[in-house]
Amino acid sequence: MQQAVDIPEIVEMINHYLTKEEFLNCTSLTKDMRTTLSYVLYKNLSIANASDEFVARLKNYPAHIQKLTLFLDASLPQGEYDECHRRMLSILSLRGLTALRVFRFKINHSGSGVEHEVARPKELSESVLPALERLIAEHSRAPTLPATLTLPTIQTLNLLSLPDSILLSLPTSFWSTSLACASLRTIELTNVVVEEAQYVLFLHLCSKLHSISLTNVTLTMTQEDVEGVEDDPGDAAKMEDILQYGRHDVAAKVVDDPTKGVAEVAIHLGDAESSDRIRKRALTISSTQEQTATIGRTRKRALTVDSTQEHAARIERDRKHARTEDDSEETAEIEHSKDAAEMEDDSEGFTGSHADSKGKARVEDDRRDAENNYSEGSARARDDLDEATRTESAAMDAVEVQVDLTRPPRVLHSPKHLSLSEVFMMPHANIVSQGGPPHAHRAALGHSVSKALFVRRCPSLESLTCRNNDKSDDTQFFALLAQDPWTLTRLESLTIESDRSEDEQVAKVLQRMRRITSFKASATLIGRLSIQALLVRGCDSIEVLRLRNCEGVTSEMTLNLLEWCPNLRVFSADRFKVQDIPLDREWLCRNLREFDVFIERDIHQDTDRDQEGDSLETQDRIMQRVAYSRLGTLTKLRRLSIITKGSRASELTGIGAAATRGLDVRLDAGLEHLTGLSELCEFVYANEGETVTLGSDELKWMAERWPWMKTG
């Protein structure tokens, strides 16, 4: 019989294993089994092998366990995997739990190799389970399994799956209404498949939610999530009118195609006021099934209400006309449409043309009662839900999600920081033309509409990050984002990494921002218009400015930013030429802490003398000293990078390394002008892997001025 392993040894093995493989930075594991428990689920050591008594003892053990880590072997058979889920839900009822992490990964059990750099430690064996059972048994109380899943004290929830190709699909019961997460503040999902409706409902129960991070998450939707409402014929052509969002109601017609099974759905977009009204109604959640059903009917009917005066007048004319008609089907339909838009009652089959005066009085009383009940329920629920939807930080990375334009994900209504990385959003149904196949430009426009409205409905947003997506058309996205009415009144930080972000559209967004403190652009098409918008809107407020691989940003534009932005603290750009430095203008950015720009010397000139008679060598030396003197005025610099030459310089100029030079790191070239940089901690004057030989005088000078500094 194999000797049992002591508990301290088990914890040490797990800690060593995680540290060695750097497995998801599990720093919460400690040697104190009273506060932290790691439960390893291998093929032959899984929770499915544990007895019900063991699970019950584990549930009742800890009043002391605060952090629980579950490792789930992805290679388990389906039956055993389902049993693991059932047992896991029982374990999650630990009353003292404050942090839960569930890891799913794949292990090579044959011992012949390692898959995805995850190896099974030889020391971990089946003897671990009896050892854990003994530990739990010593502190167990009466073995009782919970009827429902509750997480009363948990604050951090991490659900992750490795490798990326294996998605952790959570059962519906995990997100059921029996969840009680009153203390949950942080949720992180990685490589997870989630049903959107259950996920949103789960988030509504988390009244203290502070941060959400989604990485490679697939949000699935059921057919019931797609709500069909009637629309007017010919509305397919109105899709382009979305560019005037906030001014019109737009319906995107989806034509029924029996061969593809496309449903007939209309997506209604109201103006800001009606959208807010619909959102408040949609966010109302009741504690009873009757209230929930009533609110659901109200929300569906509210989506059919047109907020424009023209449509309201048309309804009024139809109502008057209906009174003059006999018991016709048209009268019944018009009256029923009016009642559905204005009333909340369960008498959907009632028509005003067939009701006597007493019946009308009863309907009016019912309508007033329904409105009063709804108002009271809304007032009670709104305070709780507003708190639940104030998520300050939300990150979506590699997410493909279908968005209901009339019902955005509520948890993202008021984040302060939003990051969209490789996010592709589309409406519930494919947008197709009337009687024809889908069109690519309409699909791209549908993505831009969904993504823009998703962001526009974040009124508290302070920072926005958008990274490239091959499927997206970011030009349309930024055009929609900048439309009236401007909703992002608090936005002051913008990060763009997209080769489809055009200068004109990005400039429109920058012009809308009341204050700009940070702007980062990488591999974009920004140029003159965006730089002008930065100087107009952000010259006095911008602190962080990073412009990388932006071909439209010229040497003169880069220098203008240094000359007109006095509060800059971090500045990073591709390059500027020493020949373009104005001799009559100083740099105002005296508070700069980080400077990272390739300072280029143009050597494509005649070898003869210039018009003034000075040799090119003398002129080059003068301009180098001018550049060093400008750098010397930045006395608060802590990091200085003036990459001299090499592969990066070749990429920036496109003329080869032999044709470009950076500043010479020599005293006679002006290096002594940096004497005043007393806070400098890092000086980068060469590319990685490149060797630059410094003279003895320069080395001695640097050692005396910056003995603590890192150079290279």
UniProtKB/TrEMBL annotation:
Residues 308-325, 355-371, 379-390 have a biased composition (Basic and acidic residues). GO terms for biological process: SCF-dependent proteasomal ubiquitin-dependent protein catabolic process. InterPro entries: LRR_dom_sf (IPR032675). It comes from the Eukaryota. Residues 284-295 have a biased composition (Polar residues). Residues 284-395 are annotated as: Disordered. GO terms for cellular component: SCF ubiquitin ligase complex. PANTHER family: PARTNER OF PAIRED, ISOFORM B-RELATED. This is Uncharacterized protein.
